[in-house]
Amino acid sequence: MKKLVLALTLTIASSAAFSQSFLKKVQSAASSNKISTASLPSLSNIGGVKDAIMGKLTPALALTAIEKPSVASTITDYLKSKADIMPLANTDKTAYASKSSSLISGLSGKLKTILTVAQYSKFLGLKPKAPSASNVLSSLFF
Questions:
Q1: Residue 104: which residues within 8 A CB-CB, separation 6 or more?
Q2: In whole angstroms, what is the distance from residue 128 CA to residue 102 CA?
Q3: Second label for 74, Cα 20 to 30 Å away, from 30, 45, 57, 111?
Q4: 12 domain-assigned
Q5: Is 8 a member of any domain?
Q6: What does the pLDDT average to over 86-109?
Q7: What's the whole-number mean pLDDT along residues 17-33?
């Protein structure tokens, strides 16, 4: 019984330590000036951005007719949520980084359920090295 309590305590403590470490990394990234709305594609036309993204993802991931509507819907929902937090990128970088990280995690989780393992791996390989207003896929990763 003592071993079980000790193991549970260690698990909880390490989980809390990891969470704090992750939070510090997010805050550190947010405090840098690497992300601004100027370095990201405009989300003023979500439908157009979604179409452009799908134009790149469909051939790159060989999306099937069954997968396309699910991926498109997931991306549209993500872009709408992302548009809601974009003003924070210039006013509250910590809040933006936290919310953006949460949105990206949610997008990834949803795509994992739609795509095959190979397709998801290819999707991750499409991530631009840095945010770029000229690369519409930046909207999905930054």
A1: 140, 141
A2: 19
A3: 30
A4: no
A5: no
A6: 94
A7: 44
Number of domains in the chain: 1
Q: Is residue 80 part of a domain?
A: yes
Q: Is the pTM of this model over 0.90?
A: no
Q: Mean per-residue pLDDT for 38-51?
A: 79
What is the residue whose two structure tokens read 């690369």? 135
pLDDT at 61 over 60: yes
Q: Which two tokens stand for residue 81?
A: 């949520």
Between 77 and 5, the higher pLDDT residue: 77
Task: From residue 139, give the alpha-carbon distance in Å to each of 29, 38, 122, 129, 134.
Answer: 17, 12, 17, 13, 10
Domain with 82, as residue range(s), is 32-141
Long-range contacts of 101-109 (CB under 8 A, 24+ apart): 101/26, 103/78, 104/140, 104/141, 106/78, 107/74, 107/75, 107/78, 107/140
Please report where in the chains the tokens 């990394």 appear, as a residue.
Answer: 25
Left if phi > 0, otherwise alpha if psi is -120 to 50, otherwise beta: which for 30?
alpha
In a domain, 20, yes or no: no
Residue predicted with more confidence, 14 or 107: 107
